Each structure stands twice: as structure tokens, then as C-alpha cells.
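User:
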Amino acid sequence: MEAEHDDTDQTHVERGRPASLANAVGRGVRRGGERARAGVHAVADRIVANAPRIPVRDLATLRKQFPGLGPEGLADKLVAGAAGGSAAVGAGVGAAAMLPTPPAMPTELAAEIVGVASIEIKLIAELHEVYGVRAPGTAPQRAIAYLGAWAQERGIDSTVPASVNAALGVRMKRELRQRVLRRGFRNLPVLAPFMVGAAVGAAMNRRDTKKLAHKVRKDLRTQQTPWDLPPDAMTPLTSPLTWSARP
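Assistant: Predicted structure:
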């Protein structure tokens, strides 16, 4: 009887070990998921906080800086500059991965996403200027519209008030966080060592910025306003977009 009792106890122990391991793994996965979600939310919040600090040039300023160019030529210049900027950010983070003691890479990756987002949001806003499709409304409304355009990877539709006048609500926050999550997964190869990450990061960021610009320009061409017929809304921008983000 004692032997049978010992066997039973041992069976319970052996059965309990996998169960305990499964519970531990489950707790670890949950904690990891919570940390990942918190990281995505933090990056998204940083992008929202940085949006009002992005300097946006109006059409008149852009035409002075790039004289002799038509809308498509000017747009090409803006895309090339933004692609070069995002590539430089990717290369910098990739190069950091080759250091003997790499910095906190999640932090570096988050900084890269925020930096590239700022470059691309500026590009989107200035492309809207070039095509004569500036978002209507106040500076806060325009800022929300361009932030939403970045999250959705498309140009705004000025004929749909909801696309430019919507508050920074649940839907936009969800889209923004999904965009950050996709960008984060795409940027993981930049953490490869020995400068491979630098090359990959530069190439991927350049490609993604150009791809985003292509989508936005395609949308804006359908609403384009000729430069010789400027709309009333295309008044000079006297300052960068400014608005207050609410949590």
C-alpha cells in the first residue's frame, strides 16, 4: 500500500511539473505581451507629442527654395530628401548594434520609429501643400489630419469632413498603434551586428518612406489644385502646426 501511495504521489508531482511550467510560461507570455503593448502605446504617444513641433513649409516657401520646378518635380525633391533622412536614421540605429556593448536596443528602436515618423509626417504635410490639398480648418485640425494620414498611409480626402475634423479618438489611436507595431516588426533587422543592420536599416527605411509617398501622392493627384488657381485655404503658414494632444 505504501508503495502504491508513493507511486501516486510521484505521478501527481510529475503531472504537476508540466502544469506548473505551463502556468509559468503563460504568465511570462502575458507579462511580455503587456510590456509590448505598453511599449507600442509609449511610442505612439511620443509621436503624438512630437507632431506639433514638426516645422511645415507652405507652398510659397517651397517654391522659393526649389525654383523652376513644377508640382511633380517639387514632390520628387521632397520625397528624395525625406527618404534620405529616414535612411540616415535607420543606418544610425543599425550601426549602434555593432558596438561591443550595444545600447538599450528597444529604446534605440523606439527612437528610430519616432524619428522616421516625424520625417514622414512632415513629408505628408508638405506634399499636401505641393498638390494644393492642404487640410482645411485650424492648425490643430490640420495636425490631426496629417497624423491620421500617416497612420493610414494615405492622403487625406478633403471632401470628407470626418477625415480632417475628427478628434484624436479611439479609432485614430488604434490605427496609430497598429502603424507603430508594423513599423517595429519591419525594423527588427536593423539590430543585426557587424554593420549589416546599418545597411538593412537604411535600405528598409528609404524603401518604406518612398512607398508611403507613392500612396499619398496617388491620392492627392485626384484632388490636385493647379498652382495658378490657388484655393482660399492656401494662405501662408506662419508657424509650425501646433495643437494640444489629449490623453
